[in-house]
Fold these 4 entries.
Entry 1:
Amino acid sequence: GVATIDSHHPLRMSRDATLQQVADRVAFVEAFGNVTAIDTEEGLVLVDAAGPLHAQSVHHSIRTWSPRRLHTAVFTHGHVDHIYAVGQFEAEEGAPPARVIAHEAVPDRLRRYEATNGYNAVINQRQFQLGQPIFPGGYRYPDETYRDHLDVTVGGVELHLRHDRG
């Protein structure tokens, strides 16, 4: 009851992402749509990539931690607050496209967001008490999808992706 709504409201909170190194070559970035970063010999792996409001700050935080290119991003699910920082890394001069992996249902979710953008904007306006309807577009679709599981190795780091309903 002491904090103001603006101090913890997801769309009004600080746009600054906070990076904490949690293990050797592993960092957690707190943002609206948290990110886990793994620094491998081949490049960075991101597990989720934050939302549009924090993408630039997430990118900056990770860049202060590691200069390696973004090699692979894993979207844990299809909400828009988990996909946007990939674009920041891919926009770097000379950066090759990242490999983006997600469950097979994610592209359908993103297409549904495209088809219902105005509707979602009105919902966000009501849910987050905004002055106007807001919902982002310009989604980064996955390059590779999986149904039940996928094992991936990047720079010697093994990732075991397993689908389950959350």
Note: The mean pLDDT is 92.
Entry 2:
Amino acid sequence: MKKVLLSLLGFVPLFAIIAGVNVYVDPANLFRADIMVESVYDITSSGKNANNVSDYRDRLFVEKRILDMTAAPENVVLGSSHGAQIDSAILDGETFNSCVTGATIEDVAAIYEIYKSTGLLPKRYILSVDTWFFDENKNDNRCELYLGEYYERFVKENVDESFSVNPSSKNKDHFDFEGLFSLSYFQTSAYHILDGSYVKFRTGAVPADDNSLSLGMVKVDGSYVYPVSYSCADTDTVNLRAMTARDGVVTSLRDSGGMSIGKRELFEALVRSIISDGSELVIIES
């Protein structure tokens, strides 16, 4: 037994190195997510664009910005990152883009419920709809994790009054222990140390005005500007991405489980509620 314990103790330094590198670099903001949310919120609330923004808990950012509003914007954009570039320059009137990464129809209903809870209803909702909104197999738990109370309230008021979200899934302050000791995350983190790009992740969000210098920018109106290296990629890079998507078949189509009756009912309830509020609804396909 003593030999086994001594053998296990021999791995402690290795696990410590893995955890230390993962936390220090943290390229996907698994451990600094709340700090990034606060910095993006503070910068955009002050009237500046927040640059150097990558993966972070954008659902919490959207919630904070909506609850901070004193007047309803004329236009509100709802949907996934596919609609995140719709900004005030494209639409006529003051706009706040409330799109979040990988949004499901549950996310959209929850974010709509945040607006309704404030009593500040916009003139117009622009809803960017993805095919996976209605997919039986699309079960992303980020809505319940970060926006569970709003989603539960919407469903109770509009679909099923007996519905409730599992309390264990509503944990905005969860710590990612899996990511802490993840070998794949360690490889990514180590790569960024070797090429020097880890500095970007350590810096966090910074104020900026020039979209042409975007390293991943959340603008004052909530819209997102992709990094220049991504949005202005050369032809060969774009062709490679297209080939990869074609050969792998787009995930949302490959893993489709067909139309979900429950998700369709949720979508219909959302449409009815928006119209009953007196707001206009514009639906676009992502």
Note: The mean pLDDT is 83.
Entry 3:
Amino acid sequence: MGEYRNPSPHRFEQVANFRDLGGHTTADGRRVAPGRLLRSGHLGQASENDLSILARYGLRRVFDFRTAADIAHEGADRLPPGAANVQLPMPDPRRGADIRQLMQDNPPERLGEIFGNGRAEAMMRESAAGLVRERREPYSLFLKALARDEAFPALFHCSAGKDRAGWAGSVVLLTLGVPEDQVVEQYLLSNRAAQEILDRNRLPGREQWLGALAPLLGVKAEYIHSSFEAVRQEWGDFDGYLRDGLRITDAERAAIRANLLE
């Protein structure tokens, strides 16, 4: 894998899946500057201690990819002083099932039937490809915001910080010229948070429930490779996706690199 080794040094109480994109290296030998762009799960339940940690970064923008329904369920972001919230809502891709709704509407004994035998993984692969094809506008707006230096330092998130935010982090790193193996490595770090959830819920009688939900709580390399394949099928390569899919100009890409690389 790549050279990225940047686990969070902080112990958050209510903010999950936090990490700094700083430390990744590009194909031309540059490095993503630390403390400029962060990612996490939602901040709806952030504690005062969590806000104190976030305040150390001097955040100016917090990009929230959640929908109104997500926010109603989880709470609006609690922000440190000086940070402005930017909402870029991304509903589930229309070809992907509303996984949260399925989980809420069905008893635990039904979840294995719904998500078992590879069905959960198939849903996640389809959703990952759908984010590429169907959510171009919010990702475009996100990158265009990162082309402006007043956005930094910045943090972005969705609900768990792994799917919508996972592709956002991947798009940023690829835009910067970070090799694909490091992009996959960054994406898979969300499994640390997923394992914590599984461990907390590993109680007698929940084995079938956990087995069914494990592919949904975490991420797999096959999910992001489904995103990569959607890029290749629709636009030929990442440069085509960036230029024609997201409408990012060469000047905007250069500005993003200037803002995030050292």
Note: The chain has a mean pLDDT of 87.
Entry 4:
Amino acid sequence: MLAPDSYAPLIVNGFSAYLKAEGSLSHVSRYWNDAGFRTRRGGTWLPHTVCRVLRNPVYVQANAEVYAYLSANGAALCIPEPLPPNHGVYLYADRRINHSRFTDLHGVYAICAPHLGLIAPEIWLGCQNKL
């Protein structure tokens, strides 16, 4: 199992690999599994768990376009002015709301995270469009 400090390059490469024409969720899951990268619970990656990572805005270097995408999908934006550049995004919602966690964002709050994101906004948005 890899040390947590070695996850970042694998996450970045996973987003880029998925966005390529031949990229698929299965391709990324094989790549992460072959690299010894394990899920949070120590399991192997499956296409649906890769999809959850690729949809999660916590990894993006958020900018105005990312926040516009989240807002267009129903999220209420809770961001400071001026917008801090390149920070990730946390999503908060009432767990009793029964809808897709990252696609139907009605009733969800998008909040600027304190950490810097790993994924360029154009790559993250490209993955969202492909998904």
Note: The mean pLDDT is 89.
